Amino acid sequence: MADATVNTAPPRPSGTRIDAASGPRGAKPRRRLSPGNIMLYGTLIVVALYYLLPLWVMVMTSVKGMPEIRMGNIFAPPVEVTFQPWVKAWAEACTGLNCDGLSRGFWNSVQILIPSVILSIAVASVNGYALVNWRFKGSDVFFTILIFGSFIPYQIMLYPIVILLREMGIYGTLWGLVLVHTIFGMPILTLLFRNYFSSLPEELFKAARVDGAGFWGIYFRIMLPMSLPIFVVAVILQVTGIWNDFLFGVVYTKPELYPMTVQLNNIVNSVQGVKEYNVNMAATLLTGLVPLIVYFLSGKLFVRGIAAGAVKG
Amino acid sequence: MAGNTRRMRPFRNIYAKIAALPMILTTLVVFVGGTIWTVTYSFTDSKLLPRLNFVGFDQYERLWSNSLWLTSIQNLMIFGVFSLVFTIGMGFLLAVLMDQKIRYEDTFRTIMLYPFALSFIVTGLVWQWVLNPDLGIQHFVRGLGFESFEFDPLSNPDTVLYGLLIAGLWQGTGFVMCIMLAGLRGIDEDIWKAARVDGIPRWKTYLFVVIPMMRPVFITVLVIVASGIIKLYDLVVAQTSGGPGNASQVPAMYVYRYMFTAQNLGQGFAASTMMLLSVLIVLIPWAYLEFGGKKHG
Amino acid sequence: MQHSISVKDLTLNFGAVSVLKTLNLDVAEGEFIVLLGPSGCGKSTLLNCLAGLLDISDGQIWIKGKNVTWAEPSERGIGMVFQSYALYPQMTVRGNLSFGLKNARMPKDEIDRRVARAAEILQIGPLLDRKPAALSGGQRQRVAIGRALVRDVDVFLFDEPLSNLDAKLRSELRVEIKRLHARLGNTMVYVTHDQIEALTLADRIAVMRGGIIQQLDAPQTIYNKPANLFVAGFIGSPSMNFLHGSVVDAGRAFTVAGAKIDLSAYDGGRPVDMDKAILGLRPEHITLAAEAEPGRTIPATVEIDEPMGADSLVWLTTGGTQISVRVPVERRLAPGTNVHLRVDVAKASLFDAKSEQRV
């Protein structure tokens, strides 16, 4: 160290290995508005518009009066907001048979939905549980057939099921449709539960058996409490699928029992004469409301349900 | 305690077997039994009620000489090919965009996926309205000053399928995008790093490394989308009712018409058997690819 | 003299968390440097910054005299080998090796020449037409090294390349890498959490913790003269013993367990009186004494002895701490025996208990 009494500045080191002042330093500058970013977000926004457009149109149309609609700007917000179309759609719209509006179809759908969801999930979850923890000879063969069966077009099984239901005396009734939904929900739900249960540690199951628990004991006391998320996913899948169903609703029920989707189609497509577009859109929105609410509330779980559906075989 | 606790074969694991009874019954009675039943009766001349009067390939001859059926098949093929290509292509491209570590990813995904939560009936009706020539998009654009703008797919027999396509894509692409995105996210990050060190630009990495790695995902999506297309029914009923005329009829509608309204069960059975065959054409090669060589169960 | 790699004041922040803190590091040409540390210490992060895969928050990176702070990985003159090999699964070995070169529009015969050279050096010639799935772990790692080789670069970066292999393969490939370095002479920066790899492969080791380089020295120096308590405890297996006591007599003696150790033979700085000091001794630097030797031995009680074939590891308590000592396996010691331990001060490390630095 230089002696403090000597009055000379320490010599500047020459030819330093690195001149620290030269060249780039620190964080790389990233332009927010680079051409790449503009294209990326631009495309995404255009795509988002494509998806949002119909929803916007649906809502807008359903709160306009008919004169305004006839003026023709489908995208414009209403000058005068009216909820009359909604009231009409719900309570007064005419299908071919009656003029009770969609409310009848709504309650039908609810009546169909609740037992179907409960029954299909109960059956499939027990199924999946049996397949994973209590395998028996041939169980996997049946499962494979079940999965393959889910790809087969429903049309091929439509009539035999009619006969089956007639023999059982429940053709045209609520329970007939519930049974149909249970049957056709089985493949994907069983797959869902089977995959979930096989991801649970086997030690849990073995420990319970050592403790003396049997088939149902383990199911209710161990499996169920651990499976809340997957049950929620199953409910989401079934609520969406059953509420949105059309074909089974039309084939296996009588007109008094038509679910909302069938009623909706009747209201919109079978009415002759003046079309009340605002009522139609209100009706359409009403029908889509339940699954949409489920969708928006469920977030990531919905995606999980889809992914499960895609991991077949 | 009594000595022998070993139960008879069928009674071992009895609870599981009882619990699995629904599955067993479903597969045997409904899936297998129902299919065999329908195929068998497609060789009969059942009209209003099924009857066991065999007439060989009669129904099939009638089927394939019925112009309505031929139109349905043609429509489905055209719609099917376009739908497959565009749904998977668009779904993949959207997934790639979403994979770029963007902000608001959840928002975008919510927007792209919500149509999937809707019924086909809702989808069909909404797009029927949007594509309305007098009051929908065409009218709107004309109102902007483009007097001769034409966009009326649903009224023209030659273009009605494209109207259906727009609606179908709207509903289905979000689903494919989610699955593709999950697949993309499953790619080991080190592979991306290695490609970057090698100096490979992003698009080439997607093309030559990522897509080949995602082959299983593509195949799965293909099978799911294809089997959905064959069952196409609700959307057509809602959006076009098969029209204009018969320009957008599809096989599923043919089946329904002959089975339930035209009182010609035999035709309906034959048509649905044909639908089954077409699905098998997709399924069997796929099953072979996935499980080829391995034993079932 | 130009350094191969120079890191100046490198800082990396993830939000509010500082992952790398004002790091400085100079690597000479042809040097094999190992970044060693526990998980989370920042060694892989530093490597990724060197590679250009991570953007830094402050500082500069120079490679071969060029400021590459903002350069893309492929422009930095580096090749990288990953823990998971990261081979392109759908391409053959040859495809993997040539993909980057083809992308750079290199003429075909130049590509072939480089691939052949890499294949010869790494002995993967017969594997050129196989796909990664058909290779063993060791073969895959060689191909991964080959991918870096064909780039004809000055600096190789290794990110825990042997961690995915079983023990036997690990030691085989370790030797291969050392041989490779001897043959090629490239600068190599190698990240690992395994001390053995570090001690055997490195010219110099950078021991890291919490985003800071604790010590940068040759392996033997790190082993013999660890710069602080952390390094001392991290390197060496079984780990160094730490005797807690005080330094008295104007820095001439260390008291513990009622005994006084003479510090005059200490190899290091000049000890000063400290209330709380720690004397670090490796198990092999403590021996059994027949009787108490003032200034050289401390008393201890045997807890357990673990015979290990060639010698025994004996665990004893002294001054409230448990320590381990190596003794010849014939000396069986019953638990509870009181013994005297002779400490080799010349090989010891004295630490200030508060600053944790070596004196």
Helical content of chain C, roughly? 10-25%
Approximate shape of chain B: globular
- CATH top level of the largest domain in chain C is Alpha Beta
- Average pLDDT over all residues of chain C: 90
Rg of chain B, Cα atoms, Å: 25 Å
CATH architectural group of the largest domain in chain C: 3-Layer(aba) Sandwich
Please report the total strand number of chain C as a whole number. 20
Question: Per the principal axes of the C-alpha atoms, what is the gross shape of chain C?
Answer: elongated
List the helices and strands and how they pair.
The complex is a heterotrimer of chains A (313), B (297) and C (359).
Chain A (H helix, E strand, L loop, with lengths): L34 H28 L3 H6 L12 H9 L10 H31 L5 H11 L5 H14 L5 H25 L3 H9 L4 H12 L1 H16 L3 H6 L7 H10 L7 H22 L1 H11 L3
Chain B lengths: L13 H6 L1 H21 L16 H7 L2 H32 L6 H9 L6 H11 L6 H7 L16 H26 L3 H9 L4 H12 L1 H16 L3 H6 L11 H11 L3 H27 L6
Helix pairs in contact in B: 2-14, 3-14, 4-8, 4-11, 6-8, 11-14, 13-14
Chain C lengths: L4 E10 L2 E11 L4 E5 L6 H9 L6 E6 L2 E2 L10 E4 L11 H11 L4 H15 L14 H13 L5 E5 L7 H18 L2 E6 L2 H7 L2 E6 L2 E6 L1 H6 L4 H6 L6 E8 L4 E4 L2 E4 L11 E8 L4 E4 L7 E12 L2 E8 L2 E8 L9 E6 L5 E4 L7
Parallel strand pairs in C: 3-8, 3-9, 6-7, 7-8
Antiparallel strand pairs in C: 1-2, 1-4, 4-5, 9-10, 11-12, 11-14, 12-13, 14-20, 15-19, 16-17, 16-19, 17-18
